[in-house]
Amino acid sequence: MKQETLFVAFSTQKGGAGKTTFTVLAASYLHYLKGYNVGVVDCDYPQHSIDKMRKRDASQIDTDESYKQLAFAQFKRLGKKAFPIINSTPEKAIETAQDFLESDARKFDILFFDLPGTVNSQGVLGSLANMDYIFTPISADRLVLESSLAFALTVNELLVTNPQIRLKGLHLFWNKVDGREKTDLYEVYEKSINEFGLPLLKTFIPDTTRYKKELSTDGRAVFRSTLFPADRRMLKGSRLEELLIEIAHIIKL
Protein backbone atom coordinates (compact mmCIF):
# COMPACT_ATOMS: atom_id res chain seq x y z
CA MET A 1 0.00 0.00 0.00
CA LYS A 2 1.31 3.45 -0.90
CA GLN A 3 2.39 5.38 2.17
CA GLU A 4 0.87 8.82 2.55
CA THR A 5 3.06 11.88 2.91
CA LEU A 6 3.66 12.74 6.55
CA PHE A 7 2.71 16.24 7.74
CA VAL A 8 5.01 17.44 10.53
CA ALA A 9 5.46 20.79 12.28
CA PHE A 10 7.91 22.22 14.77
CA SER A 11 5.48 24.48 16.55
CA THR A 12 5.11 26.60 19.65
CA GLN A 13 3.54 29.94 20.49
CA LYS A 14 6.75 31.46 21.86
CA GLY A 15 8.73 33.49 19.34
CA GLY A 16 12.43 32.75 19.04
CA ALA A 17 12.05 29.20 20.37
CA GLY A 18 13.64 27.71 17.26
CA LYS A 19 10.72 26.31 15.26
CA THR A 20 11.89 27.77 11.95
CA THR A 21 15.49 26.78 12.57
CA PHE A 22 14.57 23.15 13.32
CA THR A 23 12.24 23.05 10.31
CA VAL A 24 15.13 23.99 8.01
CA LEU A 25 17.66 21.73 9.73
CA ALA A 26 15.34 18.72 9.71
CA ALA A 27 14.34 19.22 6.07
CA SER A 28 17.95 19.61 4.93
CA TYR A 29 19.22 16.65 6.94
CA LEU A 30 16.53 14.26 5.71
CA HIS A 31 16.51 15.48 2.09
CA TYR A 32 20.24 15.88 1.42
CA LEU A 33 21.83 13.35 3.79
CA LYS A 34 19.24 10.60 4.24
CA GLY A 35 17.72 10.52 0.77
CA TYR A 36 14.10 11.23 1.66
CA ASN A 37 11.98 13.46 -0.53
CA VAL A 38 11.08 16.44 1.62
CA GLY A 39 9.14 19.65 1.12
CA VAL A 40 8.50 22.70 3.28
CA VAL A 41 5.25 24.67 3.43
CA ASP A 42 6.16 28.14 4.67
CA CYS A 43 2.99 29.46 6.32
CA ASP A 44 4.62 32.13 8.47
CA TYR A 45 2.76 34.87 6.63
CA PRO A 46 3.75 37.57 5.78
CA GLN A 47 7.41 37.04 6.78
CA HIS A 48 7.92 33.72 4.95
CA SER A 49 11.28 33.40 6.71
CA ILE A 50 12.27 30.10 5.11
CA ASP A 51 11.56 31.34 1.60
CA LYS A 52 13.71 34.39 2.35
CA MET A 53 16.48 32.10 3.61
CA ARG A 54 16.34 30.15 0.33
CA LYS A 55 16.78 33.40 -1.61
CA ARG A 56 19.79 34.33 0.56
CA ASP A 57 21.28 30.87 0.08
CA ALA A 58 20.82 30.99 -3.70
CA SER A 59 22.34 34.46 -3.89
CA GLN A 60 25.36 33.37 -1.86
CA ILE A 61 25.97 30.36 -4.12
CA ASP A 62 25.84 32.60 -7.19
CA THR A 63 28.64 34.79 -5.82
CA ASP A 64 30.85 32.23 -4.06
CA GLU A 65 32.83 29.69 -6.07
CA SER A 66 33.37 27.26 -3.17
CA TYR A 67 29.63 27.06 -2.44
CA LYS A 68 28.94 26.75 -6.16
CA GLN A 69 31.25 23.73 -6.41
CA LEU A 70 29.71 22.22 -3.27
CA ALA A 71 26.23 22.59 -4.76
CA PHE A 72 27.31 20.98 -8.03
CA ALA A 73 28.94 18.03 -6.24
CA GLN A 74 25.82 17.56 -4.10
CA PHE A 75 23.49 17.56 -7.10
CA LYS A 76 25.75 15.09 -8.93
CA ARG A 77 25.79 12.79 -5.90
CA LEU A 78 22.06 12.95 -5.09
CA GLY A 79 20.59 13.32 -8.56
CA LYS A 80 17.82 15.55 -7.26
CA LYS A 81 17.17 19.23 -6.74
CA ALA A 82 16.84 21.23 -3.54
CA PHE A 83 13.74 20.56 -1.47
CA PRO A 84 10.82 22.74 -2.59
CA ILE A 85 9.51 25.59 -0.43
CA ILE A 86 5.84 26.39 -0.96
CA ASN A 87 4.51 29.67 0.42
CA SER A 88 1.05 29.71 1.95
CA THR A 89 -0.99 31.18 4.79
CA PRO A 90 -2.03 29.42 8.02
CA GLU A 91 -5.66 29.09 6.96
CA LYS A 92 -4.76 27.68 3.53
CA ALA A 93 -1.78 25.55 4.58
CA ILE A 94 -3.40 22.14 4.15
CA GLU A 95 -5.15 23.07 0.91
CA THR A 96 -1.87 24.41 -0.48
CA ALA A 97 -0.02 21.24 0.56
CA GLN A 98 -2.60 18.92 -0.98
CA ASP A 99 -2.68 20.90 -4.24
CA PHE A 100 1.11 20.74 -4.40
CA LEU A 101 1.23 16.98 -3.80
CA GLU A 102 -1.40 16.37 -6.48
CA SER A 103 0.34 18.55 -9.05
CA ASP A 104 3.91 17.30 -8.49
CA ALA A 105 4.91 13.97 -10.00
CA ARG A 106 7.38 13.21 -7.22
CA LYS A 107 6.45 11.11 -4.18
CA PHE A 108 7.16 13.07 -1.01
CA ASP A 109 7.91 11.25 2.22
CA ILE A 110 7.33 14.25 4.45
CA LEU A 111 6.19 17.88 4.37
CA PHE A 112 7.29 20.20 7.14
CA PHE A 113 5.03 23.15 7.99
CA ASP A 114 6.32 26.41 9.43
CA LEU A 115 3.31 28.02 11.14
CA PRO A 116 2.87 31.27 13.11
CA GLY A 117 3.46 31.05 16.84
CA THR A 118 0.00 31.56 18.27
CA VAL A 119 -2.96 29.17 18.10
CA ASN A 120 -5.21 32.24 18.11
CA SER A 121 -3.98 33.26 14.65
CA GLN A 122 -6.55 32.58 11.97
CA GLY A 123 -6.25 29.07 10.59
CA VAL A 124 -3.42 27.87 12.86
CA LEU A 125 -5.49 25.49 14.98
CA GLY A 126 -7.09 23.94 11.90
CA SER A 127 -3.69 23.41 10.29
CA LEU A 128 -2.27 21.89 13.47
CA ALA A 129 -5.21 19.49 13.57
CA ASN A 130 -4.15 18.18 10.17
CA MET A 131 -0.55 17.46 11.13
CA ASP A 132 0.53 13.90 11.82
CA TYR A 133 3.02 15.01 14.49
CA ILE A 134 4.04 18.23 16.26
CA PHE A 135 7.38 18.77 17.97
CA THR A 136 7.66 21.69 20.39
CA PRO A 137 11.02 23.11 21.52
CA ILE A 138 11.10 24.28 25.16
CA SER A 139 13.74 25.96 27.30
CA ALA A 140 14.35 26.23 31.04
CA ASP A 141 13.16 29.83 31.23
CA ARG A 142 10.04 30.11 33.36
CA LEU A 143 8.13 32.46 31.04
CA VAL A 144 9.09 30.51 27.92
CA LEU A 145 8.24 27.20 29.56
CA GLU A 146 4.87 28.40 30.84
CA SER A 147 3.96 29.68 27.37
CA SER A 148 5.14 26.48 25.69
CA LEU A 149 3.28 24.25 28.14
CA ALA A 150 0.09 26.29 27.74
CA PHE A 151 0.37 25.77 23.96
CA ALA A 152 1.10 22.05 24.32
CA LEU A 153 -1.72 21.45 26.78
CA THR A 154 -4.21 23.27 24.55
CA VAL A 155 -3.20 21.28 21.48
CA ASN A 156 -3.15 18.03 23.44
CA GLU A 157 -6.60 18.60 24.95
CA LEU A 158 -8.31 19.85 21.81
CA LEU A 159 -6.60 17.79 19.14
CA VAL A 160 -4.43 14.88 20.25
CA THR A 161 -7.05 13.28 22.48
CA ASN A 162 -9.74 13.63 19.81
CA PRO A 163 -9.89 10.36 17.82
CA GLN A 164 -11.51 12.15 14.88
CA ILE A 165 -8.49 14.42 14.42
CA ARG A 166 -5.50 13.42 12.26
CA LEU A 167 -2.88 14.59 14.77
CA LYS A 168 -1.25 11.55 16.40
CA GLY A 169 0.89 13.28 18.98
CA LEU A 170 2.74 16.32 20.28
CA HIS A 171 6.23 15.85 21.71
CA LEU A 172 8.32 18.35 23.66
CA PHE A 173 12.11 18.59 23.55
CA TRP A 174 14.66 20.69 25.43
CA ASN A 175 16.38 23.42 23.40
CA LYS A 176 19.13 25.92 24.30
CA VAL A 177 20.29 23.86 27.26
CA ASP A 178 23.11 25.57 29.17
CA GLY A 179 25.58 22.94 30.32
CA ARG A 180 26.36 25.02 33.40
CA GLU A 181 22.80 24.82 34.71
CA LYS A 182 22.11 22.39 37.50
CA THR A 183 20.43 19.20 36.41
CA ASP A 184 18.01 19.35 39.33
CA LEU A 185 16.35 22.35 37.65
CA TYR A 186 15.45 20.19 34.69
CA GLU A 187 14.33 17.39 36.98
CA VAL A 188 11.83 19.74 38.62
CA TYR A 189 10.52 20.91 35.26
CA GLU A 190 10.35 17.40 33.86
CA LYS A 191 8.37 16.23 36.87
CA SER A 192 5.73 18.86 36.07
CA ILE A 193 5.75 17.91 32.39
CA ASN A 194 5.19 14.26 33.31
CA GLU A 195 2.34 15.19 35.61
CA PHE A 196 0.67 16.96 32.69
CA GLY A 197 1.01 13.75 30.67
CA LEU A 198 3.04 15.38 27.90
CA PRO A 199 5.70 13.23 26.16
CA LEU A 200 9.26 14.59 26.30
CA LEU A 201 12.04 13.49 23.97
CA LYS A 202 15.25 12.13 25.47
CA THR A 203 17.50 14.28 23.29
CA PHE A 204 18.30 17.81 24.44
CA ILE A 205 19.84 20.54 22.28
CA PRO A 206 22.72 22.54 23.77
CA ASP A 207 22.88 26.33 23.69
CA THR A 208 25.36 26.89 20.86
CA THR A 209 25.80 29.61 18.25
CA ARG A 210 26.25 27.07 15.45
CA TYR A 211 22.42 26.86 15.13
CA LYS A 212 22.51 30.42 13.76
CA LYS A 213 25.31 29.85 11.26
CA GLU A 214 24.14 30.30 7.68
CA LEU A 215 26.07 30.62 4.41
CA SER A 216 28.65 33.40 4.71
CA THR A 217 30.86 35.47 2.45
CA ASP A 218 33.98 33.67 3.68
CA GLY A 219 32.81 30.30 2.34
CA ARG A 220 33.24 28.54 5.67
CA ALA A 221 31.34 25.49 6.93
CA VAL A 222 27.59 26.00 7.16
CA PHE A 223 25.15 24.60 9.69
CA ARG A 224 21.75 26.10 8.83
CA SER A 225 20.85 26.21 5.14
CA THR A 226 17.99 25.36 2.81
CA LEU A 227 20.43 24.15 0.13
CA PHE A 228 22.94 22.13 2.16
CA PRO A 229 22.75 19.83 5.17
CA ALA A 230 24.55 20.78 8.36
CA ASP A 231 28.30 20.30 7.86
CA ARG A 232 29.47 17.00 9.32
CA ARG A 233 32.24 18.76 11.23
CA MET A 234 29.66 20.89 13.01
CA LEU A 235 27.21 18.10 13.78
CA LYS A 236 29.39 16.70 16.55
CA GLY A 237 28.23 18.07 19.88
CA SER A 238 25.15 19.75 18.39
CA ARG A 239 22.96 16.71 19.15
CA LEU A 240 20.97 17.55 16.02
CA GLU A 241 21.53 14.11 14.53
CA GLU A 242 20.43 12.41 17.75
CA LEU A 243 17.28 14.55 17.82
CA LEU A 244 16.35 13.73 14.23
CA ILE A 245 17.00 10.01 14.69
CA GLU A 246 14.64 10.05 17.68
CA ILE A 247 12.03 11.99 15.73
CA ALA A 248 12.32 9.67 12.71
CA HIS A 249 11.68 6.71 15.01
CA ILE A 250 8.55 8.35 16.46
CA ILE A 251 7.02 9.25 13.12
CA LYS A 252 8.05 5.87 11.66
CA LEU A 253 9.82 7.50 8.73
From TrEMBL:
<dbReference type="InterPro" id="IPR050678">
    <property type="entry name" value="DNA_Partitioning_ATPase"/>
</dbReference>
<feature type="domain" description="CobQ/CobB/MinD/ParA nucleotide binding">
    <location>
        <begin position="9"/>
        <end position="214"/>
    </location>
</feature>
<dbReference type="Pfam" id="PF01656">
    <property type="entry name" value="CbiA"/>
</dbReference>
<protein>
    <submittedName>
        <fullName>Conjugative transposon protein TraA</fullName>
    </submittedName>
</protein>
<dbReference type="InterPro" id="IPR002586">
    <property type="entry name" value="CobQ/CobB/MinD/ParA_Nub-bd_dom"/>
</dbReference>
<dbReference type="InterPro" id="IPR027417">
    <property type="entry name" value="P-loop_NTPase"/>
</dbReference>
